[in-house]
Amino acid sequence: MFQKLLATKLGLRLKEQYIKLSQREKIIISIAVLFIGVMLAYSEIVLPVRAAFSSQAQRLRDLEQSIEVAPDMLARYQKLVQRKTEIEQFYENVDAKESPLSHLESLLLNKAQVPAGSYTVNSRPQPDFAEKYKHTAFIVKFDTSNLGTLMAFLRELVKGSQPMLLSQINIEKKLTSDSLSIQLEVSSFEKLSSRI
Question: What is the phi/psi pair of residue 87, to 5°?
Fold first, then answer.
């Protein structure tokens, strides 16, 4: 109530003072009030609207870039899903009669005809594949001088009854002999349900 009374008295005084001003002073004060009003409107209305338009323009540019990249990403994703499905179907029909390490050693002895003790096989457990398979990677090193047995070993390794995935192969000719130094990285996939 006191504030209303004060505002009313102040308003009356300002009105009286304004009436006493000359025409020129009234124009100057009106221009100053108008200028202050414009400045307040600019800071309270125009600047936020400009910032909103700027933000919206940036989001539009980001979306345009995403749209340009999306078809390539989608095509790559579809290829990866198709490849994953092919791998799962391939390994679904594999019947693992022996452990991957035993199978690999058996192939080295019987197909590559590498004498026992003259090869190394190191295993590295990997994260499970597609939540259905235990994935184990092996690094295999051995020497051979017979390309026929090497080819038989590789063929049986990737196409045999218990196929493995050949990720990398390094073949180097030894300087001191006619033999080859072989290093392979292979992966095995065992069904998780088949483990007991």
Answer: -65, -45
Strand partners, 165: 187
Shared-domain flag, residues 67 and 124: no
Provide the residue range defining the domain that includes 2: 1-93
Span 35-76, pLDDT tens digits: 888 888 778 887 888 888 899 999 989 888 888 888 888 899
Q: Is 157 exposed, middle or buried (0-12, 13-18, 19+ CB in 10 A)?
A: buried
> Strand 133-144 vs strand 180-191: parallel, antiparallel, or unpaired?
antiparallel
Q: What token pair was written down for 154?
A: 């590789």
- Per-residue pLDDT tens for 87-99? 777 777 777 778 8
pLDDT computed for residue 196 by the predictor: 42
Check whether residue 1 and residue 80 sit in a common domain. Answer: yes
Burial of 165 (0-12, 13-18, 19+ CB in 10 A): middle
What's this model's pTM, rounded to 2 decimal places? 0.54
What 3-state class would DSSP assign to 135?
A: strand
* Domain endpoint, select from 59, 93, 127: 93
Structural Rg of the chain based on CA atoms: 41
